[in-house]
Structures are given as C-alpha cells and as structure tokens.
Amino acid sequence: MFHKPALLIKDPELIKQILVKDFNSFVNHVGGSDDHDPIGRDNLFLSKDGLWRNLRKKLTPFFTSGKMKSMFPFLDKIGDNLLDHMEKMSLNKNCVEMKVKEKLSLFTTDVIASVAFGVDANGLNNPKSEFAYISKKIFDFTLWRGFEFTALFLLPEISKLFNFKMFTKEGTEFMAKTITHVMNEREKSKVHRNDLIDTLIEIKNSEMRNNDEKPLEIETLISQAAVFFSAGHETSSGAATFVLYEIAKREDIQERVRVELQEALMKNDGKLTYDIVMNDTPYLHQVFLEVLRIYPTLPFLDRECSNPNGYSLKPYSDFVIPYKMPILIPIYGIQRDEKYFEDPLKFDPERFSPDNIHKISTFTNLPFGTGNRSCIGERFGLMQSKTAVIKILMNYRVEMADETPKEIRLAKNALVIQSEVPIVLRFVKDELVK
Ligand code: HEM
Predict the structure, then answer these.
(1) From the CA of 44, how far away is ligand 1's center (Å)?
(2) Which residues, 6 or more positions from 29, have their beta carbon under 8 angstroms from its beta carbon?
(3) Chain segment 295-326, per-residue pLDDT in tens
(4) What is the pLDDT of residue 90?
(5) Which residues' Cβ are closer than 6 Å to ligand 1?
(6) What does the CA dihedral 240, 346, 255, 389 come to, rounded to 10 degrees?
(7) Which residues sit opposite 326 in a β-bridge?
(8) Residues near 358 by beta carbon (within 8 Å), at least 6 away in sequence
C-alpha cells in the first residue's frame, strides 16, 4: 500500500482465524488519526485497543431488538415523508422517475438524525436541511475527497502528514454544535429517550478513559455520533438502491417480493410493523443478502496485526505477520468468485433460500464483516433499507427508465461501492393495500 507492504488474505480458513479465532491479535482497523483530528481518531470504526473495547461495550445496547422496535415508528413516519416527496415529484399522478440513491440518502439521513440525534432534520421536504447538506458533502467523492478518505482509512501516516480529517471543518463544526446542543438540552430536561444521545451522556458521565488514561474529550463523544451518521446512511441507502435496481430488471423477483409483502400486510390489517420488516418477509431478506453479495458496500475488510510479537501463519506458511502490518480481505472479489458462487454475476436470491443457504461456504460472504469487530449497525442498517424499499413497493412498481444503466459500472474514485452514474428508476403507482 504505497510505501508499505500489506498482506492480502483470500483463504476462508485464514479469514476465520484472523477475524474470529485469533481476534485478539487483530483488534484494530488500519486507519485512524491522531491529535490533529480527534473525530477521525476516536470514533468506533477507527478507535483502537482499550478505547475501542470500552466504546463498543457502551454502544452495543443501542442496537438491541427492543431498542430497534421502539425506533420503528420514527422510520415509518419518515417512510411516509419519502412517499409524500415522491408524490410531489410525480410527472403525472401515476408515475415518477428519480435518482434513487439521492432520495434514499435523504431518507436515511433523516432516520439517523431522528433516532440517533433526536433531531427532526426533514431533509426530504426541506432542501435547505443542514443535515442533508453535510451528509452529501461527506460522501461527495470528488477525486481529492476520495484520496483523503482512502488515506484516513488505509494510510494513517499520510493522513497525518497532509493534515487530512474525517470531516471538513464545516462538517466538524456542524456536528459539534448539533450534538453539544442536543446533549445539553437533554441533560437539562432530564428526559430519557433511550437513544444515542442518552448513551453519549452516560459515556460522558462514566469513568471511561482514552488509551492514554486521560478522561474523554467532548470530541470523542461527538465522533461516535459522527461515525453513526456517516457509516449509517450511505451504506443503507446504497443497499436499498441496488435492491430497487435489481428488482426493476427482474419482474418475476419483484412480483414475488410484492406478493409476500401483500400477504404479510393483509394479516395485519394493511399496517406496516417492525415484524413485517424484520421477520415476516423472508424472501425480501434473501433479495437483500444477494444484493449485498454482489454489491458489498465496503468492498474489503481490513485489520492490522496488533500483536507486538507478530503472528505466525504456520502451518499455512512460514511467514510471520509483523506487528502493525495491514491485512486486507477482498470481500468484493471473494463474493464474486466462481469458486464459491456458481455463475457469480447472476442475481439469484435463491442462493439464500432455506434449502440452499447451507451450501454457501463459511467465511465467503461477509458484507457486514464478522467476529467482534463486525458491523455494529447490521440490523439497524437492514431495518432502515428494508423500510424504504417496502414503503415504496407498497405503493409503486419499479421499472427501468430510459436513463437507467443496463449494467452497473462502479465508481472508481469512491472507497465504498457506488454506481458510476446516478441510478434513475421509474416508479408506477400500484398500491398493494387499497
Ligand atoms: C447495509 C448497511 C451496512 C453495511 C453493508 C455495513 C458494512 C460494514 C462493514 C463491512 C463493516 C466492517 C466490519 C469488519 O471490519 O469486520 C462495518 C463496520 C461498522 N459499521 Fe456498518 N454497515 C452497514 C450499516 C451500518 C449502520 C446503519 C451503522 C450505524 C448506525 C453502521 C455502523 C458501523 C460501525 C460503527 C462500524 C465499526 C464497528 C467497530 O469497529 O466496532 N453500519 N459496517
């Protein structure tokens, strides 16, 4: 990787060893920052060792199913805002064409702002929403921003040298101002909402220390909110966009998803619930898993060797992985490898049916990573992406438009998987529950 060697691991057995069995020798991600950028240094994704362990323990309860269930009414409401927005954009009463990712990013930004920050951002109906503006800036991968992000996540030395930061000055100031304000108001009101803000207040008032045994700075708290914001919206809106794209191409699959959804809704008087989204639409879940196999939002996983004595690869090899050597696990390549998936580029949700799923070799399909450092927001991400897709399919059929790319070409300057051109789709009114 530029100036230093890294190790690329493709063998599922070794992947298991690194991510799970010998996790204690590979605790950290490669990237991270230092004092010049506390938000890039202290967030859950890039924080290291003891600080990471403490933060993970404190933040995990935010994602229990009980918590997610209690968040669902907010998602349902924001889903209705998305439908209102589509209605307003309609070319005529029956049909709307839109750049899907752009709209779903507004949806996921509103969701995160609401359930994590307790803020009604309403970027969907307010084009001047600061949340929407800032989130667009973070993921607007200009060539320079792409390089900055790559350095932050993979080349920490370079990011220090060039003073690269996770967020722009504007983004950092906005985050700091918003979180500090919401935390202060919450503490004054003594109201508990069981959301991320409550958790951050708890961390602030705890005895938690950073890796230098110093009390946590306010930036450490802000950086958790910031990483939820950035990790939480782009990944989920991307997955939902690719789902809509793939089912627009495959009418038969879309029909099956809609029939399943209609049956689940009918059993519940037409009302959407948390259980329908998360438990009672198994075929839709298969569709999501297949989309994340072909388009894993993060195309590779990374770890660095955190064992000061190095790590021996015996009996596989005589090589000893040196302390701090970066390890890359190319999940995009593995998940599209015909060695593990027959006809790998074919979109086929049947791979994940109850009859077939056991045929998938372990450690060859890891869109959320695995082990102690896997994605903390996996279920939350699925909940919000599925809610957006379901809300749309309850009201529209989705079709290819004239502008829709026939095949997806991936953007070259983004660290995450994105289409090179915006995916435009046509939505034709067809309500499932009249
Ligand atoms: C479809 C949606 C998502 C995908 C595909 C995804 C994917 C991933 C992947 C591949 C990792 C790295 C795992 C590893 O290294 O083993 C990760 C980590 C992480 N994700 Fe997600 N993610 C999604 C949604 C979310 C959401 C909604 C949030 C937060 C609200 C989130 C927050 C995080 C955080 C904080 C980490 C770092 C965890 C740690 O280091 O302890 N993700 N995600």
Answers:
(1) 10
(2) 45, 46, 153, 302, 303, 304, 373
(3) 999 999 999 999 999 999 999 899 999 999 99
(4) 83
(5) 44-45, 56, 227-228, 231-232, 235-236, 239, 292, 297-298, 301, 367-370, 373-377, 380-381, 385
(6) 0
(7) 304
(8) none
Residue 193: pLDDT band (50, 70, 90) is confident
Task: Quote the ligand 1 centre to 278 CA distance (angstroms).
Answer: 18
* CATH number of the domain that residue 84 is part of: 1.10.630.10
Confidence band for 118, pLDDT divided at 50, 70 and 90: confident
Contact by Cβ (8 Å): 297, 239:
yes
| Residue 225 within a domain | yes
- Report which ligand 1 atom has the smallest distance to the Cα of 370: 16
Residue 191's pLDDT is what? 84
11 lies in a domain? no
Return the pLDDT at 140.
60
Residue 240 lies in a domain: yes
Q: What is the domain range of residue 125?
A: 31-298+367-429
389 occurs within a structural domain? yes
Q: Is the CB of residue 326 less than 8 Å from the CB of residue 4?
A: yes
Which pLDDT value is given to residue 137?
A: 65
